[in-house]
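Inverse folding, one chain.
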């Protein structure tokens, strides 16, 4: 992760962005992109490409390897900048704020965007970086794009989550999806506090609200697949369910099993913290019927 993504973004020139895009594009075909391919894609002279690559290397945006030939590739640091650059050009992001969340497979920044400088968040997916074994498991989803592996897997994760939010919003209480590019999503700020890190005064009412949202999602054909107190936000009006890249459809072979796990996680939390007990099968019946 860059020490200051906003400073690096401001100091990255249009020509340097062009070089990054060239490397990204050619990584579909090369593990290490030859410098000649970068020059061909950009239409820059080889001498200028060398200069631009040196600048990008100083900012730790590219990686260089010299064995049989001189080659380059990018990792998440550059991918972040490329997505951010697209959001800025579209107007969905005007200013980038602080990092406000880090998970095992994502990083979240606060930002503003749109004509009215609305508060938003940018979620950068990180699937694969933490587990190369996971990348291999998911390789079937990347087709022939072997050399983009973890970047491409992250792109798929972001697209998957964005599609889920587009399906659910606004019928289900989830963040509003605003924009998507590469491995990143711009969305509205989740309202309230994380359920697992707060104490609520009316736990029975909040439990009913959460189960109501799960029911609405199910009726739209979607099961969260990874629901817990850590991806539920609570506020005075109700709740919001976040983090949807692992969703499955209600027609999936494991739909019943994963719905059961989601509900069990929620009921176990409320039983553990608030001593509220409900029969899981009765709850499941209210959701699927």
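Residues assigned per position:
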């Amino acid at each position: 992760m860059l020490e200051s993504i906003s400073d690096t973004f401001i100091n990255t020139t249009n020509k340097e962005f062009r070089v990054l895009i060239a490397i990204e594009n050619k990584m579909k075909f090369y593990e290490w992109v030859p410098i000649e391919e970068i020059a061909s894609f950009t239409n820059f002279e080889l001498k200028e490409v060398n200069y631009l690559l040196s600048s990008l290397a100083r900012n730790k945006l590219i990686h260089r390897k010299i064995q049989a030939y001189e080659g380059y590739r990018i990792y998440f640091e550059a991918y972040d900048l490329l997505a951010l650059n697209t959001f800025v050009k579209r107007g969905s992001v005007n200013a980038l704020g602080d990092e406000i969340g880090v998970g095992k497979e994502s990083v979240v920044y606060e930002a503003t965007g749109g004509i009215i400088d609305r508060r938003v968040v940018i979620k950068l997916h990180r699937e694969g970086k933490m587990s190369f074994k996971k990348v291999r498991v998911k390789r079937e989803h990347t087709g022939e794009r072997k050399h983009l592996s973890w970047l491409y897997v992250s792109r798929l994760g972001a697209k998957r989550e964005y599609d889920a939010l587009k399906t659910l919003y606004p019928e289900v209480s989830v963040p509003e999806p605003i924009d998507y590019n590469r491995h990143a999503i711009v969305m509205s700020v989740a309202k309230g506090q994380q359920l697992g890190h707060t104490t609520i005064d009316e736990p029975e009412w909040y439990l009913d609200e959460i189960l109501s949202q799960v029911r609405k999602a199910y009726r739209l054909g979607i099961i969260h697949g990874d629901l817990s107190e850590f991806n539920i936000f609570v506020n005075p009006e109700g709740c919001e369910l976040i983090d949807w890249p692992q969703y499955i459809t209600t027609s999936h072979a494991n739909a019943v099993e994963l719905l059961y796990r989601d509900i069990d996680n929620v009921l176990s939390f409320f039983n553990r913290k608030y001593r509220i007990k409900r029969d899981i099968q009765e709850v499941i019946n209210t959701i699927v019927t």
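The longest strand covers residues 95-103. The CA atoms of residues 67 and 259 lie 50 Å apart.
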